[in-house]
Amino acid sequence: MLRRLCALILLSPALSGAQPLDATVQRSLALPGLRLPFRTTLLPTKTEQWSFSWRNANEFRSTAALVEDIETNQLEATYRRSLGPQWEIEARATLRNRGGGFMDPLIETWHRWIGFDQPLREVLPQGRAILREPGRFQYGSATGWGDLPVLVRHDLGDGWSATAGFELPLGNSGQAMGNGRVDLGASVAKVHAITETLRLHAMLGWTWHAGLGGLPGSNRWIRQLAYGLEWRTSQSLSILVQSQGETAPYRSLDANANREHRTLSIGARIALPRGESLTLWFDEDRDFISTPVVAGKGPDFGFGVLWTWRPR
Predict the structure, then answer these.
(1) pLDDT along the chain (312 residues), means of 10
(2) In this predicted structure, what is the pLDDT of residue 7?
(3) Which residues are registered as beta bridge partners of 242?
(4) So what's the pLDDT on residue 291?
């Protein structure tokens, strides 16, 4: 009986679009490369979907070997379309802005409120836009289109799915908006109904990066590992908690920055009329918990707002 009920929940129209949070680590020098989206279910047959999102991530790291003090905003439009039973295609366009941002004073206030000590952030000027390793690279403020990922997804049955695709080099690699080359990637994902209202999502993926021009020591193979829980509190609201991590995009002179980058995300998805939904979330790297399997070495703080619409 429980298995039949879980299957009904997973396939019901109200939940057929349920997914993990569409969150990534969002470290600035990782964004030019292909990152596979964390998805575990496909669209229903003969449907299409548009999603529009605003994402923001604030990074802060300052050592003798590496300075990352910058904020990245992204406006994204994602299109998904069913290709028939058990298949779909996805493409995403990104307009990216990197600069001083607006979150520095908010983050400092938040850190003081929760008692998280970060004295260097308190004394350095706010609103800086620096990505620098002396003698290797330096980037500052920039705006431009990112590369264009194109992905194909297949439903393997029993909650399993597989994704494969590539990224077209449309972004400006000289400003680290794109990497100037074609990346390839593939992943497998699983969704499992624990109870009638609680789901487990997980994904393991690998991408091959052709490297970012002007960035020495780029890592060719990037592993992505994400997992999380989705709690459906009602027909119109789901609460999501998840962790996503990936290999460092390049081999830094700062050995501490070469560890896996991982962020913890907490958010909510609200079902709206006419098949629409609104998802809100925030990302953090170690304010609540600092352990390599949950969070650490990612951007200091980030957030996302995503609106999804399915044309009738």
Answers:
(1) 36 53 92 95 94 94 87 97 95 96 77 66 76 90 96 97 96 90 96 95 96 82 96 94 94 89 94 91 76 68 93 78
(2) 39
(3) 228, 265
(4) 61
C-alpha distances out from residue 156 to 7, 48, 54, 159, Å: 15, 20, 31, 7
Q: What amino acid is encoded at 181 in this protein?
A: R
DSSP string over 222-280:
EEEEEEEEEEE-SSSEEEEEEEEEE--SB--SSGGGGSPEEEEEEEEEEE-GGG-EEEE
Collapse the DSSP code of 80 into the 3-class scheme (helix H, G, I; strand E, B; otherwise coil) and give the result.
Answer: strand
Report pLDDT for 111.
66
Biggest distance spanned by C-alpha atoms of the chain: 64
pLDDT at 116: 63
pTM passes above 0.85: yes
Q: CA quadruple 216, 217, 218, 224: dihedral positive or negative?
A: negative
Confidence at residue 293, expressed as pLDDT on a 0 to 100 scale:
56
Judge contact between 146 and 172, C-beta under 8 A. Answer: no
Q: Which of 83, 95, 90, 85 is nearest to 31 (CA)?
A: 95
How far is residue 256's CA from residue 10's CA, in Å, rounded to a whole number?
A: 41
